[in-house]
Amino acid sequence: MSGQSDFERALEFVLKWETVFAKGYWGDFAYAIAENDPDDPGGLTKFGLDARTHGSGVANLSLSQAAEIYRREYWERFKCERWGFPISAVVFDCAVNCGFRQTTLWFQRVCGASVDGVWGPKTDERVLEYIDDVGAKETARQVLEHRRAFYLGLNKPKFTQGWLNRVDGLERLLA
């Protein structure tokens, strides 16, 4: 991962979990395929980007197009760059997999900010103070504990173990 930007490191992690490959080509993005899992409310999905949110054109997305969507709609929207690694990777992956509001709620709870689901200047300030107090890795670990509890509470056995494995993988990335 040497020489990669924080975004590239975080995106590499996300794509590992969000991409489906043609049989026999795991990890080769030239063989990324669209899937349509009947239990996924987003419908047709490629690189983790769903048709419900991004339109039916997701089936034809290239890796570079998907990366640009992730940069614009997740990384930049949450201003991940300002947090530095590892917080940037946690914010990014949580937002991709669980949404902006849920990610905000976890950070607000962990950091003692007002819990309203809106990431504004007061939440920004409180998160920065908390990171200064306990450290970025400990803050990330605490947020990921909330994420685990969230998944376990969803009662979606088909997906739960994969979600928990993803959180474990993110913790290993942060180590």
Secondary structure topology:
Elements: H1 6-18, E1 20-21, E2 32-33, E3 45-46, E4 49-50, H2 51-54, H3 63-76, H4 87-98, H5 100-111, H6 121-134, H7 136-153, H8 157-174
Antiparallel strand pairs: 1-2, 3-4
Please characterize this protein's 3D structure:
The chain is mostly helical and 175 residues long. The chain has two domains: 1-76, no CATH class; 78-175, no CATH class. It is 60% helix and 5% strand. It is built from eight helices and four strands. The protein has helices at residues 6-18, 51-54, 63-76, 87-98, 100-111, 121-134, 136-153, 157-174, and strands at residues 20-21, 32-33, 45-46, 49-50. The strands form two sheets. It has a two-stranded antiparallel sheet with strand order 1-2. It has a two-stranded antiparallel sheet with strand order 3-4. β3 (45-46) and β4 form a beta hairpin. The radius of gyration is 16 Å and the shape is globular.
Could you name the key traits of this structure?
175 residues, 2 domains, two-stranded antiparallel sheet, 8 helices, 4 strands, globular
